[in-house]
Amino acid sequence: MKNDQRRLRDRVAVFACIAIATIAIDQLTKMWALSALADGRTIRVIPGLLSLTLVRNPGASLGMGSGMTWLISLLAMAACVALVVLAVRTISMKWTVLFAFAFAGAFGNLIDRVIYAEGFLNGKVVDFLNYGWSIGNVADIFLMLAGVRRCCCCSSGNRSAKRTLTRPTARRLVMMRTQPTTGRKQHEPSRTRSRRARRQTIRRRGRKMLGISRAKAADLIESGQARVLGRDISKSSTLQAGETVEFDIVEERSEPEPIAHDMAVVYEDDDVVVVDKPVGVAAHASVGWTGPTVLGSLIDRGVHITSYGAAGRQGIVSRLDVGTSGLMLVCKSDLAYVEMRRQFAEHEVVKTYHALVQGNLKEDKATIEAPIGRAKVSDFRFCVTPAGKEAITHWDVMERFGEATLVSVNLETGRTHQIRVHFSSIGHPLAGDAMYGANPQLSEALGLERQWLHAMQLEFRHPRTHVWTTVKSHYPADLQHALDVMRARHADQSL
């Protein structure tokens, strides 16, 4: 008992010493960064590898959650409490050291969110270590050390599993159900429940084992690629204990992603790139989309994109619909991703769209403020609904044609299909927008096969230089043609 208490005191002492020392180092370096780098200058330490640049990060790692700083702070508090509890309960000094480094990293950044808070736990973390591919601080180094230490502690116990996972996948996969236990007398109801619990459809079992959908598993069965040895089966057949199932897995070859060669680069530097996205190009890859993407086309051109962001969406801080053309910004550096994500989240970026709406708007300028949510009739449609998210659209009339009006639109929020939904809700859908009620006769007369909507201008504060930057576009050929036809129709009607 005494030995256990002595070991506990030793572990607590080690935890406290490491935590206090590392937190002190973290805070002292941040205080230095706030004083030495406050003017926005960059100090190059190792060219190409390390420089010192002050960045205030409101989000978590990779700039995620910039609009929910208070939630991240609460999660950090919970993590710190959990680490202390784990450190007390562990009997291993190795894990005590790991928990100490992890606690120091989490608590060091939590201090920033509390001390520099502009509201309830709304502080920003001080980052200044710019590695070129990432920007962090000393606390992040401690978190990384804890993560590396954890991998080292766990690697020895997982070597056999790793060897198994790294083997090439066989074409034929065999699954054997375990035999029921014997020799134990049970009551009849218990045997029945146990038997039922062991019986599963082949479709369900195949889905769990192969990581495929139930529909795909059904297709494998119907095509003969899934079999039970000794009997014929259907997709609704059930497995009995001890039966063997064989799956033939045919590897699908994916075609290379098409490239948008006509996508122009309007502005580019070391931090951001602004493209003029053509219609028919998605911002990034998604399930079911087989066409070109902005991200894929930039990478194909050799443009370096930051690794910050969700998988397949790196560098993306705002998007345009496939059917909407115009300016779109993509981040090349980590610093740009963190800062531009913040600017978009706090509505500091000015996005100006031009839209041709049906009918003659009564006012010369107005604001549409109505919440937008997903429509029940379709996963791809949105509508104005009390249960939706806040959405605010400002518009000014640029040109009137009687049966249509050309407007300049500024978004205060960035909901999916916001402009299309808002103008449709006031009885003035966008010309060519069949999904939201456009007149098909007018669309045909104007030669429109999509909504008349173009992201015309983008204004933002440069993430590194903080210089206010304005980028402009021009109408693509199909929208310009439709506008010329509309002007000609209006001129004829005026005669």
Identify low-pLDDT runs. Answer: 156-200
Structural class: alpha+beta
CATH superfamily grouping of the largest domain: Pseudouridine synthase
Outline the biggest β-sheet. Answer: 9 strands, mixed
* Overall mean pLDDT: 79
Number of helices: 13
Rounded to an integer, what's the Rg over CA atoms?
30 Å
Structural summary, described in words:
The protein has about 500 residues and is of the alpha+beta class. The protein has 3 domains: about 1-155, no CATH class; about 170-180 and about 190-250, Structural Genomics Hypothetical 15.5 Kd Protein In mrcA-pckA Intergenic Region, Chain A, CATH 3.10.290.10; about 265-495, 2-Layer Sandwich (Pseudouridine synthase). The longest helix has about 35 residues, at about 1-35. It is built from 13 helices and 18 strands. The strands form 4 sheets. Strands 8, 9, 10, 11, 12, 15, 16, 17 and 18 form a 9-stranded mixed sheet that branches. A hairpin with a 4-residue loop joins strand 3 (about 125-130) and strand 4. Helix 1 (about 1-35) runs parallel beside helix 3.
List keywords for this structure.
495 residues, alpha+beta, 3 domains, 4-stranded antiparallel β-sheet, 18 strands
Write the layout of secondary structure elements.
Layout lengths: L1 H35 L6 E4 L3 E8 L11 H21 L3 H23 L9 E6 L4 E2 L1 H18 L3 H7 L6 E5 L11 H11 L3 H9 L3 H9 L3 E3 L15 E5 L15 E5 L3 E6 L16 H7 L24 E7 L2 H12 L4 E9 L6 E5 L2 E3 L7 E3 L7 E9 L3 E8 L6 H8 L14 H7 L6 E9 L6 E5 L4 H18 L1
Parallel strand pairs: 10-17
Antiparallel strand pairs: 1-2, 2-3, 3-4, 5-7, 6-7, 8-9, 9-10, 11-16, 11-17, 12-15, 13-14, 15-16, 17-18
Helix pairs in contact: 1-3, 2-3, 3-4, 7-8
